[in-house]
Design brief:
The complex is a heterodimer of chains A (515) and B (243). Helices cover 56% and strands 16% of the residues of chain A. Chain A has 515 residues and is an alpha+beta fold. In chain A, helix 14 crosses helix 16 (500-514). Chain B has one domain (2-242): Rossmann fold (3-Layer(aba) Sandwich). Chain B has helices spanning 15-28, 43-47, 57-62, 68-71, 92-97, 105-110, 130-138, 150-164, 185-197, 210-213, 215-218, 222-225, 230-242, and strands spanning 2-6, 33-37, 73-74, 80-83, 119-123, 141-146, 172-180, 205-207. In chain B, strand 6 (141-146), helix 8 (150-164) and strand 7 form a beta-alpha-beta unit. By secondary structure, chain B is α/β, with parallel strands linked by helices. Classes of the chains: A alpha+beta (515), B alpha/beta (243). Chain A binds chain B through residues 76-77, 79-81, 98-99, 127, 132-135, 161-164, and chain B through 30, 32, 48-51, 71-74, 76, 78-79, 81, 115-116, 118, 219.
């Protein structure tokens, strides 16, 4: 935590604790008290805790003095800025230009900020002065605090003015002698989070405790329920359209579940697995149009910046067209996510554990055996297809290889808990490199085709002026160039994946899993 | 990080008052600001109620044995820190002279602070010395308070020539009239003449005001204890020109 503040809590059973604290300081220090005021403290982070992971704490503090946004970071001075009334969740674009927004942008990117905890309290700031009447320590008394309906103990926060840590230590020593006042560990943010029923990193699914010896069917159900956690957790953010990454994460949960079913679903009870497979396909198809449009809209500024002859402004009608299409598709998506069919799909998913039985109860495959077998098969498929690709192979062969690589990647991720982390990381490295090249190759092709199709539609509906059509033509050409570039990199990235070292890592993984 | 420095070969022209008030205004605008009191007299440190003492003294800082960051003290104002003066700074010339490329030393010392501060203001002692050369090399903008006297123009012309010849990165000169008493004809005449001859002077004039003298007594920037005074308003204008 970047918070270097020391905290003391008052024993609720004792009255006048803070008054006694002031008396304890009086012989040596003068203390200047500010008026008491009501404060609402709202801590903010992205859904996936990007600020916390970057060692940042962002707080909005609202009182009769106005609204301040305060950003603290490890090893850096606190930054504060006055802002207008803000409602959250919101993208950081709602913040005024300045150092805080710039710092946040580099960390959160396109993600929205959401309240993680809201604390209401009464604040009194106090300044502790030395003999020169210089402020050396800041104290804040926070009383009558509550997070939603949960009360928090009254507390005193102590922070040193820079360069006066020794004085702060002396003040702290005096405070711990005050009856009813106790020093505590952890920041007020942590206590507020806890009172709100939240914890840092609670976006991650409770990872199933996979062991090599557990029945394979139980392992697969645990994995599928992990993905269900992601889907259910992101659902609200998708429907409320908080930011585009909720839908992205939702789709990742769906896609990985489909792959898990395809690659290892045969160990489950077949009717339930087939039903879930149909549900997942429906969900995948349902969410694709909105996500595809998100990708175009998010990527447009970069693509526009790369235009050589056309002006980025020429693409404005195209951007508006994409936004309009996205609104239409998003409405359709939300209707479906509120439908009975979607509720049924979630029910099927949840009930999987109750229904799941090995297809052949006599043959109890273990998770370790399953992992080793399926990884070997998937690795063999990638190697075989990759080796058959030459300079003149059709694009479809690379697209097919990309799918096989994804399957291998999903298997690696699903069975990660069974693997030695170092071996797992080494095996993943070259696969990732190959996937990047294949991804760039296919994405460029798909996007180039899509731009052409969008242009055709816009022309037929007379919503594309000539400069826009020309700019879109240039965009399509740019994407084709990216695709050609990726094609030239394929041979080297596949050779790295197919190297003796890389194959040895995979052999090691499949040996380890089956033990 | 933008580095400004107050400089004049003469003493008592309002360098420290300017440094203190502009540092306060910079911080008030939300910029993380550091003022480095390089004058061994320690007037800026005194105004901010900070003891003019640095562990290891100037020698420790110049030789890199003590860190600038450890010597920094927070003032009573948000976003405003101060690097205190130390009496040993009177020998800073000799200490710099003992280093290779002495005029680059201050700039090198400030470099690690570039992530921590948006604005640094150097309050430079009077005189021409290795310290002032080092300050000029470190600064992006040299703030030059000119008192309304005939010799001021000559001094300013000399400074302009000197600064122009600094290799690599001469600072921008930002000169303005300081301690102006509009009741005095001489002041009015000199201001008019010099402004006509040098078109590159800042428009703001800082008055000769008792409220500025009171800074040492009140131990605070003018805007804190006399926010509606003419002097406070003129420092605001000066900062607006420099912002």
């Amino acid at each position: 935590m970047p918070d270097a503040t020391k905290y003391f809590v008052a024993d609720p059973g004792q009255a006048g604790v803070f008054e006694r604290a002031m008396v304890a300081l009086a012989p040596r220090y003068s203390v200047v008290q500010s008026p008491v005021r009501d404060v609402v403290r709202t801590w903010l982070d992205t859904d996936d805790w990007l600020l916390h992971r970057a060692g940042l704490v962002l707080e909005q503090r609202a009182s009769s003095d106005g609204i301040r946004l305060i950003l603290q970071s490890t090893g850096d001075a606190e930054r504060a800025q006055t802002i207008e009334q803000s409602t959250w969740p919101a993208r950081i674009d709602v913040l005024p230009e300045g150092a805080i927004r710039a710092r946040l942008r580099s960390v959160v990117g396109i993600r929205a900020l959401l309240p993680t905890a809201v604390l209401r309290s009464r604040h009194q700031d106090l300044r502790v002065l030395n003999g020169d009447q210089k402020t050396v320590v800041h104290l804040t008394i926070e009383s009558s605090a509550s997070v939603e309906e949960t009360p928090l103990a009254d507390q005193l926060a102590l922070s040193a003015v820079r360069g006066y840590q020794d004085q702060a230590e002396r003040v702290a020593v005096r405070l711990v002698t005050v009856p009813g006042l106790s020093a505590i560990e952890g920041s007020v943010y942590e206590r507020a989070l806890s009172a709100a029923g939240r914890a840092f990193g609670d976006d991650a699914p409770q990872t199933a405790q996979l062991t090599a010896s557990m029945p394979a069917s139980n392992a697969v159900v645990a994995v599928l329920h992990g993905f269900l956690f992601t889907v259910e957790r992101t659902l609200g953010g998708v429907v409320d359209d908080i930011d585009t990454e909720f839908l992205h994460d939702f789709r990742v949960g769906v896609r990985r579940s489909r792959s898990t079913l395809k690659l290892a679903g045969d160990v489950l009870e077949s009717a339930a697995a087939q039903q879930l497979g149909r549900d997942l396909k429906w969900l995948g198809d349902l969410t694709s149009p909105t996500r595809d449009l998100d990708v175009y809209i998010l990527g447009l500024p970069d693509m526009a910046a790369g235009l050589q002859s056309a002006s980025p402004a020429d693409l404005e009608p195209f951007r508006r067209y994409l936004l309009s299409q996205r609104r239409t598709e998003f409405r359709r998506l939300v209707r479906a996510l509120r439908s009975a069919r979607f509720r049924d799909a979630l029910e099927h998913w949840r009930a999987l554990g109750l229904l799941a039985e090995p297809s052949d109860p006599g043959h109890q495959t273990s998770a370790g055996q399953l992992a080793a077998q399926r990884l070997r098969q998937a690795h063999r498929r990638v190697t075989k297809r990759g080796r058959s690709i030459g300079p003149d192979s059709a694009p479809e062969s690379l697209h097919d290889l990309r799918k096989r690589c994804k399957e291998l990647r999903y298997l690696l991720e699903i069975f990660r808990p069974l693997h030695d982390p170092a071996t797992h990381g080494a095996a993943l490295k070259d696969l990732k490199g190959l996937q990047e090249v294949l991804g760039e190759f296919q994405d460029a092709e798909v996007q180039s085709l899509a731009v052409r199709e969008f242009a055709a539609t816009m022309i037929s509906t007379r919503s594309a002026p000539a400069p826009t059509v020309l700019a879109m033509g240039e965009l399509a050409a740019q994407l084709s160039a990216h695709q050609r570039h990726a094609r030239t990199e394929f041979a080297a990235s596949f050779a790295a994946f197919d190297s003796a070292d890389s194959r040895a890592w995979f052999r090691e993984l499949t040996r380890g899993s089956s033990s | 990080m933008r580095v400004l420095a107050t400089y004049n070969i003469k003493g008592g022209v309002g360098k420290t008052s300017t440094a203190v008030n502009l540092a306060y205004l910079s911080a008030r605008d939300g910029a993380r600001t550091l003022i480095w009191d390089l004058d061994p007299q320690g007037a800026a440190s005194f105004i901010f109620r900070i003891k003019p003492r640095v562990r290891g003294g100037g020698k420790g800082l110049v030789r890199g044995k003590s860190s600038l960051e450890d010597a920094i003290k927070g003032t009573d104002f948000d976003d405003l820190d101060l690097l205190p003066a130390d009496f040993s700074y009177r020998n800073l010339d000799l200490l710099l002279d003992a280093r290779k490329k002495p005029i680059t030393v201050l700039r090198q010392l400030l470099r690690p602070l570039s992530e921590d501060y948006d604005t640094v203001i150097l309050d430079c002692p009077p005189g021409i010395s290795l310290v002032s050369e080092s300050v000029m090399y470190a600064a992006d903008t040299l703030l030059v308070p000119l008192i309304p006297a005939t010799l001021s123009l000559r001094t300013f012309d000399q400074l302009t020539d000197f600064v122009t010849n600094i290799n690599d990165r001469p600072p921008t000169l930002a000169a303005f009239f300081s301690m102006v008493d509009r009741r005095k004809r001489l002041h009015r005449d000199v201001v008019a003449t010099l402004t006509a001859r040098r078109g590159d002077l800042l428009r703001t004039e800082i008055p000769a005001a008792s409220v500025i003298e009171q800074m040492a007594e009140r131990r605070a920037p003018v805007a804190v204890f006399a926010p509606r005074s003419v002097a406070a308003s003129q420092y605001e204008s000066l900062w607006a020109e420099l912002r």
